[in-house]
Every structure is written in C-alpha cells, then in structure tokens.
C-alpha cells in the first residue's frame, strides 16, 4: 500500500466481545453493521476532527446509510481482534461512498460498501455536505477521488 493510500484509510482495531456473538460463539452478522457505525463515528471524531455526537445532537446533521452491500467471508470469534479499515470511494454533493473491510491478520472476515447521505434531522431531507465536513473529507480522501469529483 503506498503512502497516499495508507493516509486515506482509517483503521480501527476492535476486540470481539461476548455481546457481539450468537450462541454458536461467532459474530452475529448484524453486529458487524453496529461495528461499522462505531467505526464511522470514530473516524469523524478522531480523524476528521468533526465531533460526531455534536454533529447529530446539536447541529442536527444526520448521516444515514442509504445503500449497503455486505459480504461475509469467514466467522469471527469472541476474543479475537479484528481490524476495520475504512476508505472513501466517492464524494458527492450530498453523499459519501465508503469501503469497509474487516480482517483478522491477512484474513478478510467481511467487506461492506456503504453510501451515506447528509440529512437535516429537523426535516429528514437530504442536504449538501456542510462546508466544514467537506473540507475535513478533502484532507482524508485519496487525490484520485478529488479529481473525479472535480470532473463530474
């Protein structure tokens, strides 16, 4: 992975806990979606410098998932630590495309693609990505994504 791509990836290690697992002792698949939402919250707060709780609670800007695709490759078990890696794939006027991979070492456990849309939590309508959020995103996304955005 080159330096630019590494810079454009947010990695978050997470220990698989009892609460994530089903009676078979493996991650109950909807829990991966909870984990990906936690990943997005931490990415905003820690990497982008946008306090996610403030964005939702005070600014009333929502970021719901409007499109989601997941592939589950291998089970994860309680006690393992998996690394969730988030990369921006698209940046639109009102939407952010994400690629999220969950892996344990070199083994991919799941892969998700998501499209998030900025919304007003007062009206429920989609809104343009606020200027400060867009600015933070432009410092995170790969240069190729920004050049695609300018050409579209």
From TrEMBL:
Keyword field: Hydrolase
Superkingdom to which the source organism belongs: Bacteria
UniProt GO MF annotations: hydrolase activity
CDD domains: 4HBT
Membership in a protein family: Belongs to the 4-hydroxybenzoyl-CoA thioesterase family.
Species for this entry: Trinickia terrae
Protein name: Acyl-CoA thioesterase
């Amino acid at each position: 992975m080159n330096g630019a791509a590494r810079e454009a990836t947010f990695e978050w290690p997470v220990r698989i806990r009892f609460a994530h697992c089903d009676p078979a002792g493996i991650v109950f698949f909807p829990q991966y979606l909870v984990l990906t939402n936690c990943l997005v919250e931490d990415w905003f707060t820690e990497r982008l410098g946008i306090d996610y709780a403030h964005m939702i609670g005070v600014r009333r800007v929502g970021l719901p998932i409007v499109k989601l695709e997941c592939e589950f490759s291998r089970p994860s078990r309680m006690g393992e630590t998996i690394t969730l890696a988030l990369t921006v794939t698209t940046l639109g006027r009102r939407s952010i495309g994400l690629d999220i991979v969950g892996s344990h070492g070199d083994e991919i456990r799941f892969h998700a693609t998501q499209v998030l849309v900025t919304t007003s939590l007062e009206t429920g309508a989609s809104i343009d990505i606020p200027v400060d959020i867009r600015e933070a995103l432009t410092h995170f996304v790969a240069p190729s994504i920004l050049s695609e955005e300018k050409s579209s």
